[in-house]
Amino acid sequence: MYCSYPCQVWPFARMLYPSFPGMGNRRMAYSACPKGYKAAYAMLIAGPDYPSVTGVVTFTDTPGGTMVCADVRGLPEYRPAEGDKGPVGPFGFHIHEGGHCDIGDPEKPFEGCGGHWNPTNQPHGNHAGDFPVLVASSGRARMCFMTDRFTVDEIIGRSVIIHENPDDYRSQPSGNSGRRIACGSIRLMDPSEST
């Protein structure tokens, strides 16, 4: 269990997650957060390049900041850069401005989500929405980290995007992290959904 304090939002054994064998058609279950704490989640949908990508990202307010946890499956195998093509993986991972994860143009999926969320107008690498890269093993990436750059309330209605290439944390404005391969709209967890 990853996020047991102050809210248990990480265990997915009873989450609606059709691509995970044995999970069935069950709703999300988690312990209620103590008064004053909030949690949010984003269920990932795959773009056309890697249709097997699935996953969930959770966000939980804690006394030390916001705990972000990601569990992503179906990511492509790592491929090193060749010629003018960037590598595939590790995968850039960010919060983006918009929250509607429509694929839109298959040549530029999820463009409707806009750029990186950057409420304080920082250079890239220091955006509030800049996250560590996701490193996959056999197509699965799991990671949790803490940040004090935002609260759950500030990100509701935005999106998380996974990119095909690693973020270089230098190139402006978005780190040269390549195509958008998965997207999830960030939504507030509703305690009335617990089972």
Question: Can you describe what's shown?
Answer:
The protein is mainly β and 195 residues long. The protein has a single domain, classed as Immunoglobulin-like, CATH 2.60.40.200. The chain is built from one helix and eight strands. Strands 1, 2, 3, 4, 5, 6, 7 and 8 form an eight-stranded antiparallel beta sheet that branches. Strand 1 and strand 2 form a beta hairpin. The longest helix is centred in the C-terminal third of the chain and has 4 residues. The protein is globular and about 50 Å long. 38% of the residues are buried. The N terminus is likely disordered.
For this structure, the CATH topology is Immunoglobulin-like
Shape: globular
Q: How many helices does DSSP assign? A: 1
Q: If you compute it from the alpha carbons, what radius of gyration comes out, rounded to the nearest whole angstrom?
A: 16 Å
CATH class designation:
Mainly Beta
The CATH architecture can be given as Sandwich
Main β-sheet, in a few words? Answer: 8 strands, antiparallel
Per DSSP, what share of the residues sits in E-state strands of 2 or more residues? 25-35%
Mean of all residue-level pLDDT scores = 81
Give the CATH superfamily: Superoxide dismutase, copper/zinc binding domain
Outline the low-pLDDT stretches: 1-32
Considering DSSP H and I runs of 4 or more, what fraction of the residues is helical?
Answer: under 10%
Indicate the structural class.
mainly beta
| Span of the ends, CA to CA | 18 Å
Note the quaternary state here. Answer: single chain
Overall number of structural domains: 1
